[in-house]
Design goal:
Layout: H1 5-28, H2 35-42, H3 46-52, H4 64-76, H5 84-97, H6 109-117, H7 120-145, H8 148-174, H9 179-201
Helix pairs in contact: 1-2, 2-3, 4-5, 4-7, 5-9, 6-8, 7-8, 8-9
Length: 206
């Protein structure tokens, strides 16, 4: 769908505010920065910030909607007969190849990881966001299979595996490993994680 001028301006404004907030958080820590300070630094009103980001945590964890869209689309658009686990595996490889920020195998992710690790509020919000993703995936799998109980279980396992794939490179970068090494080995991390999952849930959703 073609993006209109208004939608593009809103998206750019939202990204600008998030970028400004991220720089402030990285410099001073999440808890030390107020929404008023973010608004002033971004050159907007406080109400504008809260309109785009009702929760302060979402100024940093701002890709929830995109992550949900990518996951649900990967399941909806997969070839007939392809298991759900393979659709999500392919998505993770694709994000890495695209150097998408959600692949997390990039130098700047070390700073991002430290910010989250040091903030109970961010850790709590990250857990909430994963639960929302689990629910979205479960709904999609239930629509396909009609088996709500297994769909919920598989969704939780899929998100646990995807989360492990996302967190592993961040932890390695925080520990000081070279970004080139982390990125080079991330395809192997993805396959090892999803191989284990595939062995457990088999071809559910195919």
């Amino acid at each position: 769908m073609h993006e209109g001028l208004r939608e593009r301006k809103k998206r750019e404004a939202r990204q600008h505010i998030s970028d400004v907030a991220t720089r402030l958080f990285a410099k001073r820590g999440f808890e030390a920065v107020t929404v008023v300070e973010i608004a002033e630094a971004a050159g907007v009103a406080k109400a504008t910030v809260t309109n785009y980001f009702p929760r302060k945590e979402d100024l940093l964890l701002d890709l929830q909607a995109e992550a949900e869209r990518l996951l649900v689309d990967a399941l909806r658009e997969r070839p007939p007969g392809q298991p759900a686990v393979e659709a999500v595996r392919a998505l993770m490889h694709r994000l890495l190849a695209q150097r998408h920020v959600l692949s997390t195998a990039a130098p700047g992710m070390a700073r991002f990881g430290r910010l989250i690790a040091e903030s109970p509020a961010l850790l709590s919000r990250a857990r909430e966001q994963r639960e929302y993703l689990e629910s979205a995936v479960a709904r999609r799998l239930t629509e396909e299979t009609g088996d709500a109980v297994r769909a919920d279980l598989v969704a939780r396992l899929l998100l646990a595996t995807a989360t492990t794939v996302v967190v592993t490179p961040i932890r390695r970068l925080v520990a000081g490993e070279p970004a080139t090494t982390v990125t080079k080995e991330q395809n192997q991390v993805i396959d090892e994680a999803f191989d284990l999952l595939a062995a457990g849930i088999g071809t559910f959703g195919s």
